[in-house]
Amino acid sequence: MSAPAADRAHLLDALRGFALLGIALANYTGLSYWVFLPEKEQAQLPGAFLDATMNAFHFVLIDGKFYSIFSLLFGIGFGLFLGKGAEAMPRFLRRMLVLALIGAMHMRLLWEGDILFLYAVLGMLLPLFRHVRDRSLVIIAVALLLSPILLDASTVLSDGRFAPAAPIHAAALAEDKSFGFEGGIPAHYVPDGGWKEFMVWQHGGWIWRIEGLIGTNRIPKVFALFLLGLWVTRRGIFRDPSAHSTLLRKVALIGAIIGLPCSVLLWWSELHFGHVPELIGLVHTAAYAFSVVPLALAYAAGFALLWTGERAQRILHVLAPAGRMALTNYLMQTIIALWLFTGMGLGWGARVSPITFESLAVVVFILQVLYSHWWLKRFQFGPMEWLWRSLTYGKVMPMRK
């Protein structure tokens, strides 16, 4: 017997809440400005003796895994949307247009590391795959996931002549130079400044973000996970995880067997060969391809298996309200970080080591879980979810329960 739709929604919301924790841990590395500091300055910060441990933790267990779960969930959501029929497609495209606007504003005005804009743009392509067969979806997804190896190998073999991100990289350097920062903007520029300095940083930040998305081959990776999410929905795996426990166990086991050693290789190669760009490039690309998605799928499958247990489900259900307000909480993680780390707030940026900013990320997430519970007892949607829905439907949606 299939689980009720509400149970499926709660599982997806809880998994989305779990992903939010990993997103905070991943993003606070950049939002704290620590990543922009020279190694000598990093080593002088309080708690720096734990940097090696935190670096290993980040590379092996965090880096890339949680945006991958988010991407998978996005594809699952599209698959559920398809259940509403072809007449729902115009509404889906309006949702993507509104999300693109929100993402563009987030990337331009608040944080260049935004992922929403990319999701929205790629999401508009998903309707083209509505009628693609299940097996073809998986083949296309695997090809897209492995394509970065071919793309980066082409760059190396052509001695850099094939470099899709090169023009944008040049534009980003020129933008920094226009503000007098020929060698890049100093890490302390924003934490020591105010609104004006922050807007200078953001003025060219979005260009660096586009360069990063192309240069790291993020586009095929994300779209591959969208397609896998669509396949997962078609198979009904999250509709009733207990009925698919054998498949979920295989995914969790194989994903961990492949993903964990490759994640360790990724960390080890960065540690020992990060100063040799020509060597680290292809090793990093290959290790990333075989570590991030398998381990992310192992996380998601393991979470779904835990959900099948009554006691574990009660514990994991605590995360569901945060996941139901994922858009609001994702944006609030940025806003809180701006208050913590820029000169517009406490100015702690570039002054705290990984153990501190990762601890702050956990505290922020816990507060978001508590706030989400409080909010959803009173309202039907999170604030940004309400705005997204209202703009999509072109009318003010009822907010209060």
Helical residue percent?
Answer: over 70%
Rg, Cα atoms, Å: 21 Å
Strand segment count? 0
**Contiguous uncertain segments of 5+ residues:** none
Approximate shape? globular
N-to-C series of helices and strands: HHHHHHHHHHHHHHHHH
User: How confident overall, as mean pLDDT?
Assistant: 90
Relative strand content? under 5%
Kindly give the count of domains. 1
Distance between the termini: 31 Å
Helix count, DSSP H or I runs of 4 or more residues: 17
The helix/strand class is mainly alpha
Biggest sheet descriptor: none
List the helices and strands and how they pair.
Layout: H1 5-31, H2 39-43, H3 51-62, H4 65-82, H5 89-110, H6 116-123, H7 134-157, H8 166-178, H9 195-215, H10 218-235, H11 245-273, H12 277-307, H13 310-316, H14 320-324, H15 326-341, H16 354-376, H17 383-393
Describe what you observe in this structure.
There is one protein chain. The protein is mainly alpha-helical and 401 residues long. The chain has one domain (5-393). It contains 17 helices and no strands. The mean pLDDT is 90.
